[in-house]
Amino acid sequence: MLKKLFKMNSSIAIEEFVTIRITGPYSLLKLGPNYAAFRSGDHIIEAVGEELIVETLSEEIAVLSFDFITSVSVKEIRDGQEDYDL
């Protein structure tokens, strides 16, 4: 019930270059042994690394850890642009 009273802003954090934390509303688009893709608002977040471990996937928090991250990208989806291609 508190979630309805206090709306969370979306954010992404990279911790110690091995953990990615997404806070706020998101949807999981794609998940594999060494990659993950999420949508948060009008943005697509893609992360690639070695040995992905999903620590948390809850309604408004996602925490993913890798042995090491090789790339992270954030792309804006503009009006009229196609959604993420699965």
The span between the termini is 33 Å
Shape: globular
Count of helical segments? 1
Strand order of the largest sheet: 1-2-7-6
Instruction: Describe the sheet with the most strands.
Output: 4 strands, antiparallel
Strand content: over 45%
- SSE series: HEEEEEEEE
Low-confidence stretches: none
Number of strands: 8
Radius of gyration: 13 Å
The amount of helix comes to under 10%
Mean pLDDT, as a whole number? 88
Helix/sheet category: mainly beta
What does this structure look like?
- It is globular, with a radius of gyration of 13 Å.
- By secondary structure, it is mainly β.
- It starts with a helix and ends in a 10-residue tail after the last strand.
- The protein has a 4-stranded antiparallel β-sheet with strand order 1-2-7-6, with no helix packed on it. Strands 3-4-5-8 form a 4-stranded antiparallel β-sheet, with no helix packed on it.
- The mean pLDDT is 88.
- It has 1 helix and 8 strands; from the N terminus they run αββββββββ.
- The protein has one helix at 2-5; strands spanning 11-15, 19-23, 27-31, 35-40, 43-50, 53-57, 61-65, 68-76.
- β6 and β7 form a beta hairpin.
- Helix content is 5%, strand content 56%.
Task: Please specify the SSE layout and strand pairing.
Blueprint: H1 2-5, E1 11-15, E2 19-23, E3 27-31, E4 35-40, E5 43-50, E6 53-57, E7 61-65, E8 68-76
Antiparallel strand pairs: 1-2, 2-7, 3-4, 4-5, 5-8, 6-7
Produce a short descriptive summary:
This protein is mainly beta and 86 residues long. The protein is built from one helix and eight strands, in the order αββββββββ.
